Amino acid sequence: MVFIKVSFKAALAAVLVVMVGCSSSPTGRKQFTVLPDSQMNEMGIQSFTEMKKETPASSDAKLREQVQCVADTLIAVLPDKYRNQDWEVVLFNDEQVNAFALPGYKVGVYTGLLKVADNQSQLAAVVGHELAHVIARHGNERVSTQLATSQALALGYQLSGEESPEKIAIFQALGLGAQVGIILPFSRSHESEADLLGLEYMAEAGFDPRESVQLWRNMSAGGESKTPELLSTHPSNSNRIKNLQANLPKNLPIYEALVAQNKEAKCY
Ligand SMILES: [Zn+2]
């Protein structure tokens, strides 16, 4: 049995600390985050362990190598605090059109996503966006909001076994709602922040940032009968593509400079 315990005292202390000081996201947005990063990392690691128990990894060595390369190339341009960590990247063998990144330095990609992401840069668009949710500490904001409205966290979470309310709540907070079937979509401000940061990571890592626009077009075009799981936790709207396009002039030259030096990403 896997338990994550947050004592009521510790949670209360954290709330009090935040009343004194408020944090800011990488884009300068004010944030309400009460949990220590170490606690969020622990939740991410435990959730990842659960997912690995439930879903087998792909045995396709070539695909695994491609996904690992895209993730590693993006991780190399993250802020030092994140870049210098030992990230675990898993390609799950599952038809879901989905991917995620978790506090605690974990990245998960589903084989289903590789049918919608047509090339290395489109895969980088998704992984970069997911990494941005972690670096901007959106999970902490979501948990903190839940903490502020209930004492559920103070009672301790049970992550193993059946889909308990505790497990669902923690998966939701980490943006894994599609996995437990109860969706808490990222807010519009979290989505646009992850898009902007993700676009920067792509360009700096040598992936073509224009492919982010094509990826989200592919995602909403579907072609398949059901909505991609990624869209249920990462709702798209007409503004997403517009905002990405508006930020291309800033990011495209960074990518083009790398191309000119033959330093663009070459994963596949
Ligand atoms: Zn998102």
TrEMBL record:
Coiled coil: none annotated. Its cofactor is Zn(2+). Residues 64-246 form the Peptidase M48 domain. Transmembrane segments: none annotated. Binds 1 zinc ion per subunit. GO terms for molecular function: metal ion binding; metalloendopeptidase activity. One of its GO terms (cellular component) is membrane. One of its GO terms (biological process) is proteolysis involved in protein catabolic process. InterPro entries: Mito/Outer_Membr_Metalloprot, Peptidase_M48. It comes from the Bacteria. Keywords: Hydrolase, Metal-binding, Metalloprotease, Protease, Zinc. The keyword Metal-binding applies. Belongs to the peptidase M48 family. This is Peptidase family M48. It comes from Marinomonas polaris DSM 16579.
